[in-house]
């Protein structure tokens, strides 16, 4: 009788540890994904800034060309 109770307690403790360890792994994965998402957002912001600067330079060049062509 005591062996079955002890075995039940060991089984319950093992299941509890298995359940808890998965949560820590999920939290670590979520943190890594959040860091990657933040990095991607920063990259996207930088690309948008670079594209805006390129577009402004192209617009200035086109305006200069239009003036030169009108003469």
Give a verbal description of the structure:
There is one protein chain. This protein is mostly helical and 71 residues long. It has one domain. Helix content is 97%, strand content 0%. The chain has 1 helix and no strands. The chain has one helix at 2-70.
Condensed summary:
With 71 residues, the chain is mainly alpha-helical. It has one helix at 2-70.
Key words describing this protein structure:
71 residues; mainly alpha; 1 helix
When the domains are counted, the total is: 1
User: How many separate helices?
Assistant: 1
> How far is the first residue's CA from the last residue's CA?
105 Å
Percent range of helical residues: over 70%
Classification by helices and strands:
mainly alpha
Mean pLDDT: 82
Instruction: Write down how many β-strands occur, each being a DSSP E stretch of 2 or more residues.
Output: 0
Uncertain spans: none
Shape: rod-shaped
How would you sum up the major sheet?
Answer: none
Strand content: under 5%
Helix and strand string, N-terminal first? H
How large is the radius of gyration?
A: 31 Å
């Amino acid at each position: 009788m005591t062996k079955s109770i002890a075995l039940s307690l060991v089984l319950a403790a093992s299941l509890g540890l298995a359940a808890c360890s998965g949560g820590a792994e999920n939290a670590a994965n979520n943190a890594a994904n959040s860091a990657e998402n933040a990095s991607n957002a920063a990259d996207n912001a930088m690309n948008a800034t670079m594209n805006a600067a390129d577009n402004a330079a192209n617009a200035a060049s086109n305006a200069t060309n239009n003036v030169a062509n009108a003469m």
